[in-house]
Batch of 2 targets.
Target 1
Amino acid sequence: MNPKHIAIIPDGNGRWAKQRGESRISGHIRGTAVVKDTIIQAKQLGIPILTFYAFSDENWKRPQDEIQGLMMLLKEYLISERATLVREKIQLRALGEISKLPPFVLEELQKTIEMTSSFNQMILNFAISYGGRSEIVRAAKLLAKACMAGDVKPDDISEKSFQKHLYTADLPDPDLLIRTSGEMRISNFLLWQMSYTEIYAPEVLWPDFNTNEFLKALEVFRLRKRRFGLTDEQYES
Ligand code: FPP
């Protein structure tokens, strides 16, 4: 069975550019083109939810010119791909502290989110200015406020009610995480949601991730045995 929700850490843009003696931003430009192709691939393969780690909390610490380049790319992506998202009936959502984004990106992001909000052919999440720990702290604060207001009793807090305060409140957890460039880290991505996610970390750098690589990832996923903490016998019965 194909995964219902795929999360992707598109890693290796910088190394790809370095191998060619080019600037890091040229790696991100190529990486953005691959993001576009992957979205269409996922739609054609019938994957209902795709989540990209586009910009982490920690990425704000990168050199200013790289941050500026990534923000420009994001803005250009949102403007140039809006028509594609509408044509393909893909709903765009953002996960993260988007109020930290420069206004020229935030405006385009909000416009695209609004324009696509009624679509249901696929959900595309961009985690931007996102950190897994800060998402969990944010949920804890929301619940604490609800307790203070008398709307929730502390003893009634459950995993299920906690999850409702995450950015992904109404979405199933990712079945598969693809992190390119061979790195075996989660890097503060969807910490709560990845409890039982299958991790696949091919050596390919993100700018070289293509249809074959995507199909390979799905094949690896199909061959994985997922037991969610049960024994083989329990899970198969
Ligand atoms: C990791 O490569 C990539 C990023 C930090 C940014 C990801 C951004 C894109 C793919 C482009 C913009 C995204 C969208 C959704 C339009 P790296 O720079 O850490 O590479 P390195 O580890 O080789 O240095």
Target 2
Amino acid sequence: GGESTTIGKLMVLYGLDTAIRERVAAGMPCFGTCAGMILMANEVVDGLPEQPRLSVMDIRVRRNAFGRQRDSFEARIEAPAYGEPLEAVFIRAPYVERVGPRVEVLGTYEDKIVMCAQGSLLAAAFHPELTRDRRVHRRFIELARAWKGHALHERRR
Ligand code: GLN
């Protein structure tokens, strides 16, 4: 999380965008939360024009979709794939307006999509690091463990 335009500019400055995109293409799992979800989206509404991004997920994301900073909130979201609902902290959060055919919806709040996956890519509009529930991170760790590309990058170093 953070501020997606700033993160995007820094990614380009340090070449991190290309490095991440290459690894994602090689199957590396990647998890974007909030601003990270914006960075992973193919399409962003209400972003700055030409806002630099990774553009690795077939989703359309609306920035600051729930309002301003003071409209930040905590809520239980529906997440059937995780069993019980999840407690979620939304900080000037985006939501997903459209998902492509390869995208699985993992979490909804009211009628809004707030968490989704595309292969080994995960995106959440909320901040799972701010609650004690570890289910969201656990799923990501499982994806990371399953990735066979580790050896490749070990050798490169
Ligand atoms: N509003 C921020 C943005 O548009 C995201 C906020 C967050 O990451 N908590 O980039």
